[in-house]
Design brief:
By secondary structure, the protein is an alpha/beta fold. It has a 6-stranded mixed β-sheet with strand order 3-2-1-4-7-6, sandwiched between helices. The longest helix is centred in the last third of the chain and has 17 residues, at 248-264. The chain is globular. It starts with a strand and ends in a 5-residue tail after the last helix. Helix 2 links the parallel strand 2 and strand 3. The chain has a single domain, classed as Alpha-Beta Complex (Spore Coat Polysaccharide Biosynthesis Protein SpsA, Chain A), CATH 3.90.550. Helix 4 (155-164) packs across helix 5. It has helices spanning 15-26, 44-51, 145-153, 155-164, 171-178, 201-208, 232-244, 248-264; strands at residues 3-8, 34-39, 56-60, 95-99, 103-105, 119-121, 135-141, 196-197, 218-220.
């Protein structure tokens, strides 16, 4: 079986996040290669930089799947996430584990390749039991051209559904439209500890009875506020705020990421 870890990047804003994710993944001792999917028209010098933090580049045609709805999106920074839909078409691989660039890998993830596609988990479930859709930040995918075409057919109904709820939309809504019955397939759910949303990590730690963040496998730093794009002082102020709010593990996860930045050679803005 030909397998790989896959991430995507469409602009320089996420480069430092990709570097950190890639370094943390490699530190787990995995022998599975990491490839990064980029648009074919991405700046060549930038692509050369990306090559330094992965095992290979996969360039695909940059089709803007969100064009008809781009200006209406309430969360416009999600428009670029539609590029992620291309991972379903990576048919050179039998199975991939997709990982967002705003993640920090804490433990080896190779066991995820034992799950069928599409497998994922509901990020933030411990804090919000009503959540039933999966988070697309980390997924097990079995690429297939026919399913890729079917996935693209889900774009319009997914977006229309979110618009009817007066909410923004991104790739995650399309994947959930594609696999509507995911919540009824427990064998496709690898558990929230593989996609621990930083904002809700305190609830997860309490639910699991964990005392150390290293008992989790992946921390996910969702949202437009990215640590690597912040100044050191902003990050420290956020940590202090989280402590005052009683969100101790959120504060610790923020500090853990800052330490990882230093180890990887990434400087805060």
């Amino acid at each position: 079986m030909k397998k790989a870890y896959i991430s995507v990047i469409t602009n320089k804003d996420y480069y430092d996040g990709l570097r950190i994710m890639a370094a943390s993944l490699k530190d787990t001792g995995t022998k599975v290669p990491l490839y990064v999917v980029v648009p074919k028209d991405l700046n060549i010098d930038f692509v050369e930089s990306v090559k330094n933090c992965c095992d290979g580049i996969i360039a695909v045609q940059d089709r803007d799947f969100s064009i008809p709805y781009k200006d209406e999106n309430k969360t416009k920074y999600w428009n670029n996430t539609f590029f992620k839909l291309n991972i379903m078409n990576l048919t050179d691989f039998d199975k991939i584990v997709y990982i967002d660039s705003d993640m920090l890998v804490l433990n080896n993830l190779d066991s995820l390749f034992e799950y069928p596609g599409i497998s994922a988990t509901t990020g933030g479930k411990s804090a919000h039991p009503e959540y039933i859709e999966f988070n697309s930040g980390i997924m097990v995918i079995e690429p297939n051209r026919e399913e890729f075409d079917r996935l693209l057919e889900c774009i319009t109904p997914a977006i229309e559904r979110k618009k009817s709820m007066d909410k923004g939309y991104g790739d995650q809504d399309v994947f959930n439209e594609f696999y509507k019955d995911w919540h009824d397939a427990p064998d496709h759910n690898f558990g929230e500890e593989y996609n621990a949303l930083c904002a809700h990590v305190d609830a997860l730690m309490k639910a699991k009875g964990y005392k150390n963040l290293r008992q989790l496998s992946v921390l996910h730093y969702v949202g437009p506020d990215k640590i690597w794009n912040n100044s050191v002082w902003r990050n420290l102020r956020l940590i202090i705020r989280y402590i005052h709010e009683g969100r101790i593990y959120t504060a610790k996860s923020w500090w853990m990421y800052m330490k990882r930045m230093s180890k990887t050679g990434v400087k805060a803005s």
